[in-house]
Design brief:
Blueprint lengths: L15 E3 L9 E3 L11 E4 L12 H6 L4 E5 L6 H10 L4 E5 L2 H13 L6 E5 L4 H12 L5 E3 L9 H6 L8 E5 L7 H9 L3 E4 L13 H9 L7 E5 L3 H6 L9 E6 L6 E8 L4 E7 L2 E7 L4 H16 L8 H5 L9 E4 L5 E4 L6 H12 L7 E6 L8 H13 L5 E5 L1 H5 L8 E4 L2 H7 L9 E5 L7 H7 L7 E5 H13 L6 E5 L1 H5 L4 H9 L4 E4 L2 H9 L6 E3 L7 H6 L3 E4 L2 H13 L5 E7 L13 H10 L3 E8 L10 H22 L4 E3 L3 H6 L7 E4 L18 E6 L2 E4 L5 E2 L5 E2 L5 E5 L17 E4 L2 E6 L7 E4 L10 E5 L5 H8 L3 H6 L6 E5 L1
Helix pairs in contact: 3-6, 4-9, 11-12, 22-23
Length: 828
């Protein structure tokens, strides 16, 4: 990476420069304090938002060794402020600017201007990340390519991506996303693409645009100075837009299933586990196969094919590469392993940028202190192989890694560079032969290997053996939903997140660990066992226990769990336990009943409650709260406001009498969306975190996908019946598929006999007959499927709400009923 000094940018961003340590240069841009890797070589941009202030993290980063900062000032800088900064941070440099995001973009713009390499810019609504990753996968053996990490396509993500350009970079591939008017113009000069790829346009982020055409026009600003643009001619609006005067003189390269185009797609043949794409380009027949059957993957592959054809690549040499493309969204998996291990499988590709991201993810898994990395040779072009492995060693050596296992002749050659406890093998086969001599137990293991090293063998070896039904949990969706609710709150409002009932079926410490990394303020669990499990999983943040058994108070105190107190009996027993232990000021949470008529102190009990608390120094009230009974129902808003008013009155009495800071909270997920004005000091986020909105907001992302596979297909004869009780009946000649999911897995027995349906290749298929404990049958008479095909129980397109409506229940019940024998796979 190229090194810069902060002073070099003061004129570019028109900023005030405070020079405390002139000699210190930086290579890396940092906007998230949690992703710190190279303190002494980083510059931190203190970005301010509605709910966060980047300046809050400066002291901590300074202590960790960061010595370059870019900060905002709302007023003119005067000598007193400068003197204060110099005295507080005597070994750091500061650049004070009007806007840190604009400064970040200017930094990246300056760097981009130093490169004349070809750059591909990708925009659209869907497919940007997949096309980018697949192009990289197809081309990276021939060129040294830098591309956007993950989905870094925003006002912040684009400059961070472009900053990765290095002296030996031969090509850049960057994606650009926008959510409102005016954003694209800011990132166009930073990407400055020579080649443009326009994917499809849909309703994503439509709320900030007048119509489809306005959004399309805004996205096309990316290509105003681009020479070559690839697009799909089948989209009428895009096709007509490309005929506009502004695109005259550009090379417009198209593909189509319907019209004359550079690449005419003549046939698409979907088979069991792959799709054959047949077309014609410049009078030559073209054929490739990809390991996907969905429409989106086919479209993304055609864009990649068109790119290779236009630039005269020999497609015959890429057939095997197309046929081995992997699903991008499956790129990083978190899975339960044998011997109480946690497996992070990130074997999609092997490059230094994705390695840094994967190691950050590894470090944030706190279930086990022991962290192991199993890494193969990095198969990317680099003029200086030793420098490549030195950079990798620097990343590993600067992290708290317990053990490194290197696989490959290249990484083995540079084993001297790794200070961590490390062993090396020349091949995956050699490692597998020696694996019985290596102990793997109670640790987190990161698998990071190039495809040629077949790390899927290692993943299979380390994983627990479970049946074909799995629940996929999208961790990025959880973060997105968390930030959506956070955006509705005041900056100083705290968030307690409900992770009871196995986090609504999504997992325990996996979700809690993610929330801890997001700096949530509190967690809440249903019982002491759930809290202890989180402590064993490395969760250190405050945890409130909603329904603690009085007989287990000692155990709760030993694990630093905080009790919800809802009755005089529970309070007196808790005080008694604390007195035995000679403990004082232990935090408790007081629940007030304002109309739910479940748990909690009533209004007439408040005076006695205050007296008891004042008399006993063993306890300290951390929070006072109540529970809304019907915050999601507009017809009951009068009752909800009555609850809020009563809570405000009673909690105010308590806080005034006790005369020390006490957190007040009453809003649940629905309350946050519908009664935001009453957020008090903290809110409790529950089902909303997992993608369910009380106001049917389209701003939340679904979190979970429950899926299985077809294990057998059968033809039905005349008079045949299906399942227990012979309830299932179809016409002779019909076909059924057997799916290994039953009521023991959480598929409600009430969905049998055509009440419910599953989905195969986007086709709804009714459940036939009674659902048994471990499997069910579906009618596939009218569709073409094969054994081994994926079966969706619910996903983003086939929402769990549909299933809950069929069952006349709520999503909570379905989610919490998913058995723990169903393997959870966490995707990042």
């Amino acid at each position: 990476m190229i090194a810069y000094k902060l002073e070099e940018f003061k004129n570019i961003v028109n900023g005030e420069y405070i020079d405390n340590c002139q000699a210190k240069s930086f290579k890396y841009l940092l906007t998230d304090s949690r992703l710190l890797s190279n303190p002494s070589e980083s510059v931190f941009f203190a970005i301010n938002g509605k709910n966060h202030n980047g300046n809050d993290y400066i002291k901590d980063l300074y202590k960790k060794g960061v010595c370059n900062f870019v900060i905002e000032s709302d007023i003119n800088i005067n000598s007193n402020q400068i003197d204060t900064i110099k005295s507080l941070f005597p070994k750091a440099n500061f650049l004070i600017v009007d806007n840190t995001i604009s400064a970040l973009q200017e930094f990246a713009l300056m760097k981009r201007q130093n490169f004349t390499i070809p750059v591909i810019g990708i925009t659209g609504s869907n497919g940007k990340t997949i096309i980018k990753e697949w192009l990289f996968e197809l081309l990276h053996k021939d060129k040294n390519i830098i591309r956007s990490p993950k989905s870094y396509n925003s006002q912040i993500g684009v400059p961070l991506s472009v900053w990765l350009l290095q002296d030996n970079t031969e090509m850049g591939i960057f994606e650009a996303g926008i959510s409102k008017i005016g954003e694209m113009s800011k990132i166009v000069p930073i990407i400055k693409p020579d080649i443009g790829i326009l994917t499809n346009i849909n309703d994503a982020h439509q709320e900030n645009f007048a119509n489809y055409e306005q959004k399309l026009s805004e996205k096309l600003i990316l290509f105003k100075d681009t020479d070559i643009i690839f697009y799909n001619k089948d989209d009428k609006s895009i096709r007509e837009k490309m005929q506009a005067k502004e695109f005259a003189g550009k090379k417009l390269i198209s593909w189509s299933k319907k019209y004359d185009a550079n690449l005419k797609i003549n046939n698409i043949i979907r088979q069991r586990n792959n799709t054959i794409i047949m077309g014609e380009y410049e009078n030559n027949k073209i054929e490739i196969s990809i390991p996907f059957t969905d429409d989106a993957s086919v479209e993304n592959a055609i864009f990649c094919l068109l790119y290779l054809l236009y630039f005269d690549y020999d497609i015959r040499k890429f057939k095997a590469s197309f046929n081995s493309l992997l699903s991008v969204e499956m790129r990083l998996e978190l899975i339960q392993g044998k011997n109480n291990c946690l497996i992070i499988n990130d074997s999609y590709n092997s490059d230094i940028e994705s390695l840094s991201i994967a190691i950050d993810f590894l470090i944030n898994q706190n279930m086990h202190k022991k962290k192991t990395i199993i890494i193969s040779d990095i198969l990317q072009i680099n003029n200086n192989e030793e420098m490549l492995y030195k950079n990798i060693a620097d990343i590993v050596n600067n992290k708290n890694i317990s053990r490194l296992i290197g696989i490959g002749t290249s990484i083995s050659k540079y084993k001297r560079l790794f200070k961590t406890n490390a062993i090396f093998f020349n091949s995956t086969e050699q490692f597998l032969k020696s694996i019985t001599e290596i102990s793997f137990k109670d640790e987190v293991i990161l698998l990071k290997g190039a495809r040629e090293f077949e790390f899927e063998k290692l993943s299979e070896l380390f994983q627990k053996k479970v049946h074909e039904t799995v629940l996929e949990i999208n961790l990025e969706a959880i973060i997105y939903n968390y930030n959506y609710f956070k955006s509705l709150l005041k900056r100083d409002t705290k968030i307690m997140v409900m992770v009871k009932a196995f986090s609504y079926g999504s997992g325990s410490y996996e979700i809690a660990n993610l929330l801890q990394a997001q700096d949530a303020d509190y967690l809440a669990v249903a019982n002491i066992d759930e809290g202890i499990d989180l402590r064993k999983g490395g969760i250190t943040m405050p945890i409130m226990v909603i329904n603690p058994k009085t007989t287990y108070y000692d155990l709760m105190i030993e694990n630093k769990l905080e009790a919800e107190i809802f009755s005089f009996n529970s309070l007196e027993l808790f005080i008694k336990t604390l007195k035995k232990r000679n403990m004082g000021n232990y935090p408790i949470h007081i629940k007030i009943d304002t109309g739910m008529n479940r748990l909690g102190f009533t209004a007439d009990e408040i005076p006695k409650l205050i007296e008891l608390i004042q008399y006993n120094n063993e306890i300290s009230v951390k929070s006072v709260f109540s529970h809304l009974a019907t915050s999601e129902d507009k017809s009951n808003d009068l009752f909800t406001r009555k609850q809020i008013a009563e809570f405000n009155e009673l909690s105010t009495i308590i806080t005034k009498k006790l005369n020390y800071p006490i957190i007040r909270h009453i809003l649940n997920s629905a309350g946050i969306e519908r009664f935001t004005d009453y957020q008090f000091d903290m809110v409790r986020l529950g089902i909303g975190l997992y993608g369910f909105s009380a106001i049917n907001s389209n701003k939340l992302m679904p979190v979970s996908i429950l899926k299985s596979t077809i294990i057998q297909i059968k033809k039905i004869k005349e008079n045949d019946t299906i399942g227990y009780g012979r309830r299932g009946k179809l016409n002779a000649g019909s076909k059924i598929a057997i799916v290994p999911i039953g009521y023991a897995d959480g598929l409600s027995r009430k969905l049998g006999n055509s009440v419910g349906q599953l989905y195969i290749r986007d086709n709804p298929v009714p459940i036939i007959g009674n659902i048994s404990m471990d499997m069910c049958a579906v009618d596939i008479t009218d569709i073409s499927v094969n054994e081994g095909d994926e079966v969706i129980i619910f996903d983003n397109n086939n929402h769990i709400l549909k299933m809950s409506e069929s069952l006349k229940t709520i999503p909570y019940e379905i989610m919490t009923n998913i058995s723990q024998r169903v393997k959870r796979i966490y995707l990042q």
